[in-house]
Specification:
The complex is a heterodimer.
Chain A lengths: L8 H20 L5 H26 L5 E9 L2 E7 L1 H24 L8 H20 L3 H19 L6 H28 L12 H6 L4 H19 L7 H8 L2 H26 L5 H22 L5 H28 L3 H36 L15 H14 L6 H14 L7 H33 L16 H19 L1 H16 L3 H10 L18 H22 L4 E4 L17 H11 L4 E6 L11 E6 H22 L6 H20 L1
Antiparallel strand pairs in A: 1-2, 4-5
Helix pairs in contact in A: 1-2, 1-4, 2-3, 2-4, 3-4, 3-10, 3-13, 3-17, 4-5, 4-10, 5-6, 5-10, 6-8, 6-9, 8-10, 9-10, 9-12, 10-12, 10-13, 11-12, 11-16, 12-13, 12-16, 13-14, 13-15, 13-17, 13-18, 14-16, 14-17, 15-16, 15-17
Chain B lengths: L2 H33 L9 H11 L2 E4 L4 H20 L15 H21 L3 H32 L4 H10 L6 H17 L18 H4 L5 H26 L10 H28 L8 H23 L3
Helix pairs in contact in B: 1-3, 1-9, 1-10, 2-9, 3-4, 3-9, 4-5, 5-6, 5-7, 5-11, 7-9, 7-11
The chains are: A mainly alpha, B mainly alpha.
Chain lengths: ~675, ~325
């Protein structure tokens, strides 16, 4: 479908990138002109995002379009390509940007570290580089975009660079991002084959054409998994998430968690299904296992956090884990040639990408509003905000219910599809995998249930109960711009939850591109007989789910119950103090804190945590209770690696004596050795 | 299938559930009293209690939010919907396709989240304690329940409840080891989910040992009535679910009027026996400490996973 003036879809995408860059550059000419930046540039960026979402949506069903940009090095131009997979993730980027940028317009305040204009530039470069990552069709453009994405987000994370913890978080993020990037570079090196294609070998088109043997394709996949896993927060490369997300300003956390993590998922799908052709079954099992461990780890740690953004960061780790579980399942099915089931699993992955983007951006923005209203991220100092911030609270509740995977909201749909995919596994021709699958399904179910626990904690401690600090009664609700951003994302959550059939129909083009079949198409007339209301991915006899009917019946029963109670009895209410079993001296400090609410899980999953507890003795006059929950992996993996690296660096430092004669000696010795080698 | 009749049937199922649920709770209470050698309350005691609560005015804490006031209606609606989806009088309720076994677990979870949030809303120590414990029970019970359904789904190749019940009802009479494991797991989960004795005590008056009751301490009047009614509906839904999964005989497949004449007595008989067994279990066991509850539910979870493995190992020999 050519757009206006005969432009191809891909031209629109390039225009969007150019527009974002232009907005960013427009900001540095007036870096301190706050009204101009917040009231003109950010809303303009949001509008461009909306445009991107619409254009990408229109491009979902199209045949791939390619383009060569006159940028890059001589003889190494940037290749771009827009296919259904790119279009889907571009749509996700555009839709989230529309909400987050509008929120940012109302959210950003003066005097927060980096000058607003510079921050606006970084933010829009970040957006443009994410779009370029999704469009890139050669390794060079991909790595350039990937690195600018990492760098621009690093600068955004360290907006408040005067605070040491934030600098440390930024450093950790940058470090892991680069370790991952090196791995990706190596992966593309393996993928380009033995160099027969010469300089053109770096294009994805060339990589697609090469049939690697089992060893090299496994090597490439492993490197890609490591590289993209570092960006996504796959265990054990997850440590930067809980540091970087709280450090960044809330719209940036929302963007990173909602969208940037998805570029890593995009990368895994691109390499695993598009550039490589024949997945091996053990890749699937490995990815599945890693995903499960990540998901459980994330949710168990989320349950004991007392910083609201850290809690959400761990919950993102959990969701990334679930996405990898789906990818692993897809790989397994695909390797055994069960394409219809692979399509089902892949659909659940893609669906969950959209869902997680919508609800996690929403929740991060909610924490932003709460942070501005109360100046604290610490759950122990919040509470009762539903009375002072009703808009934020009720919209947050939608996000919380979605994130907890409860029907009829969106998180449930993808969870449902994933569990359906698990139920089909007994058809696998491999006995041991068959045995493993029920255990994996059980772990997924446990993760989903724990996510409910975490989300109840998140919502209840922030918004319900009595305010834990006196100053909370001065909290103000979000402004109009912030509110509209929240409403947009909440509406996405609800729409994705209520109309799954439309979404799945759209996702079909992506699964057809990657796997050659789509579930909506394959389900046939029987499954579509009920129309848009009933989601029946295989056949109505096997499984069906109708969120609209579900929601309507709940609402009808609620309304009926309300009216009947009114009609037959009365609606008298007497307002008085809380009863609490007659205990008169109730204070806000007697309700559960975040630590208290997480305590049962700390007890049940004790071996997972590294806990340092300081328990006061019974005779202590000024008792202090402290408990620090840390991650074992930090001590078992990161500190040893850091030690080895430091040791290596010190060894290398022996070479560096600081005297020119010694350096000349090195050159001389090198020369002699080389001459010897050439002659010998 | 006659659409008008099936809608009537669905409505009938809902009304039956709404009316029979308090009766079932009353029956269980009677049996408990008899087994405990006490004088039993009348069978219809629960209706009187509901009527009394509806008459009374609501005493609301000053800092209750609108979430607190809306929650009872939503909890009630979730449980009513659940009892509409569970096949009781016919294996093909018109609402069946709206939600399968996984969605049913989702409904229970939704109701639990609402009640936990409401429990946290006033910000009293007992309310938050109850909410925390309820979520603790919930996060272990939910996956165990899901695994029970998965076992049934693997046998019947479907997650749709009506297909499951049909498939289980039609198979030849034989002991399936996987279903036996799943049945034990399901019983343990239902005890925990319905706040029955080894995990919680529905008649307790000691706040410190409460789970479900602590969470709803601040409710009164019609709100409390709706929550209590929802609790009985939950017990009813779970009982019917257990009967439909493990004793599926007597639920007619068609939707003829004559079928109803078979279905209704069969349901009443099975519920009466089930209720008595529930009372028996409650009488002979003692309440667990709260931190033994995860072990109890962990066992249920393991049994349910084991049921799936057993099915894959023993019953699908190729």
């Amino acid at each position: 479908m050519p757009g206006a003036q005969g432009l191809l879809s891909i031209d629109w995408m390039v225009l969007v990138i150019a527009a974002w860059l232009a907005i960013g550059i427009g900001a540095i000419f007036a870096p301190r002109n706050f009204p101009y930046i917040s009231r003109v540039l950010y809303p303009a960026g949001a509008l461009v995002g909306l445009l991107l979402a619409v254009a990408a949506f229109a491009a979902l069903n199209q045949t791939p379009e390619t383009m060569v940009l006159p940028l890059g090095l001589p003889d190494l131009p940037f290749h771009l390509r827009l296919d259904s997979l790119s279009a889907l993730f571009l749509m996700l980027l555009g839709a989230c940007t529309a909400g987050i940028s509008i929120f940012a317009a109302g959210y950003l305040r003066k005097a927060e570290g980096t000058a607003p204009g510079v921050q606006c530039l970084q933010y829009h470069v970040f957006l443009a580089s994410m779009a370029l990552v999704l469009l890139a069709d050669d390794a060079y453009a991909f790595m350039v975009a990937w690195e600018s994405m990492a760098l621009s987000s690093f600068f955004l994370v360290t907006s408040d660079h005067r605070i040491p913890e934030i600098r440390r978080a930024g450093y950790l993020y940058l470090l892991i991002a680069h370790v991952g990037a090196i791995s990706l570079l190596l992966c593309f090196g393996v993928l380009q084959g033995n160099g027969d294609a010469g300089v053109a070998g770096y294009t994805f088109a060339n990589m697609r054409g090469i049939d690697h043997n089992a060893f090299w394709s496994s090597a490439a996949f492993g490197l890609a998994l490591f590289g993209f896993g570092a960006k996504a927060g796959l265990l054990p490369l997850h440590v930067w998430l809980p540091e970087a997300h709280p450090a960044a300003p809330s719209p940036v956390s929302a963007m990173m968690s909602g969208v940037m993590l998805k570029t890593a998922i995009y990368g895994v799908l691109r390499v695993g299904f598009d550039l490589l052709h024949h997945p091996l079954w053990w890749w699937g099992v490995a990815v599945l296992t890693l995903g499960l461990v990540t998901a459980l780890f994330g949710v168990i740690f989320a349950a004991v956090q007392s910083d609201m953004k850290r809690l959400l960061a761990y919950s993102s780790i959990e969701n990334i884990g679930l996405l990898f579980v789906g990818i692993g399942l897809t790989l397994t099915f695909q390797s055994f040639g069960m394409r219809a089931l692979a399509a089902l699993a892949l659909t659940s992955v893609l669906y969950h990408c959209l869902n997680h983007a919508a609800f996690k951006s929403l929740l991060f923005l909610v924490t932003g509003s709460v942070l501005h209203a109360t100046q604290t991220r610490n759950l122990g100092k919040l509470g009762g905000l539903i009375h002072y911030m009703p808009w934020v609270a009720w919209l947050g509740l939608l996000g919380v219910l979605s994130s907890a995977g409860l029907p009829p909201f969106n998180g449930f749909v993808s969870e449902w599809l994933l569990l359906q995919a698990f139920l089909f596994t007994p058809g696998l021709p491999h006995g041991y995998i068959n045995m493993m699958i029920p255990v994996a399904a059980a772990a997924v179910a446990l993760t989903a249930a724990l996510a409910g626990y975490v989300m109840v904690k998140f919502f209840a401690v922030i918004f319900l109960g009595q305010p834990r600090e006196a100053k909370l009664n001065q909290a103000h609700d979000a402004g109009r711009l912030e509110r509209s951003g929240l409403v947009w994302l909440a509406a996405l959550c609800v729409a994705l939850g209520l109309f799954p059939v439309f979404v799945i129909e759209k996702l079909d083009s992506v699964t057809r591109l990657l796997l050659g079949t789509g579930i909506y198409q394959a389900a046939g007339e029987a499954a579509r007989a009920h129309g848009w209301m009933y989601l029946a991915p295989i056949s109505p006899d096997r499984a069906s789910y109708a969120p609209v009917v579900f929601l309507l019946s709940i609402l009808v029963i609620v309304a009926a119950a309300y009216l009947i109670v009114r009609r037959f009895w009365h609606i008298r209410v007497r307002i008085t103090g809380a009863w609490d079993c007659g205990f008169p001296m109730q204070t806000a400090r007697m309700q559960d804190t975040a630590e208290g609410f997480g305590q049962p899980l700390r007890q049940v999953f004790e071996p997972f945590y590294r806990m340092t507890r300081e328990l006061p003795s019974s005779f202590d006059k000024a008792p202090v209770y402290r408990v620090v929950v840390e991650d074992h992996l930090w001590y078992w993996l990161y500190l040893p690696v850091a030690k080895v690296t430091e040791f290596g660096a010190r060894m290398v430092a022996f070479l560096q004596q600081g005297r020119i004669s010694i350096y000349l000696l090195y050159s001389f010795v090198t020369l002699v050795v080389l001459l010897f080698l050439i002659h010998g | 299938m006659n659409t008008a009749f099936s809608v009537i049937l669905q409505f009938l199922e809902l009304v039956t559930a709404l009316l029979a649920a308090p009766l079932l709770t009353g029956w269980v209470n009677q049996c408990r009293a008899w087994l405990g050698n006490r004088t039993a309350p009348p069978l219809f005691q629960f209706y009187r209690q509901l009527a009394k609560l509806f008459e009374k005015e609501v005493v609301l804490a000053a800092n209750a939010s609108s979430l607190f006031r809306a929650a009872p209606y939503f909890i009630f609606a979730c449980m009513a919907l659940a009892s509409m989806i569970v096949p009781t009088l016919s294996t093909e309720p018109p609402f069946g396709p709206a939600a399968d076994a996984i969605a049913l677990v989702g409904i229970f979870a939704l109701a639990r989240v609402f009640s936990a949030l409401a429990g946290m809303d006033i910000g009293t120590s007992f309310g938050t304690l109850g909410a925390r414990r309820e979520m603790l029970i919930g996060f272990l019970a939910e996956p165990a329940l899901l695994m029970v359904f998965f076992t049934a789904s693997l046998i019947s190749q479907s997650t749709s409840l009506s297909t499951i019940v049909q498939a289980l009802g039609q198979r030849e009479f034989a002991i399936y080891p996987s279903l036996a494991f799943a049945g034990v797991a399901f019983t343990m989960v239902s005890l925990a989910e319905n706040a029955r004795i080894p995990v919680d005590n529905p008649t307790t008056h000691l706040e410190l040992t409460m789970i479900h009751e602590a969470m709803i301490l601040e409710y009164s009047g019609r709100h409390l009535a709706l929550i209590e009614w929802a609790a009985t509906l939950k017990l009813y839904a779970y009982s019917c679910l257990g009967l439909a999964l493990f004793f599926p005989w007597g639920i007619p497949e068609g939707t003829g009027f004559a079928n109803l004449l078979v279905a209704l007595p069969a349901l009443v008989f099975k519920l009466a026996v089930g209720g008595f067994l529930l009372a028996l279990i409650e009488t002979v066991s003692a309440k667990l400490r709260i931190f033994r509850a995860p072990e109890f539910l962990g066992t249920a979870f393991m049994l349910a996973v084991l049921a799936m493995l057993v099915h894959l190992l023993l019953e699908t020999a190729k």
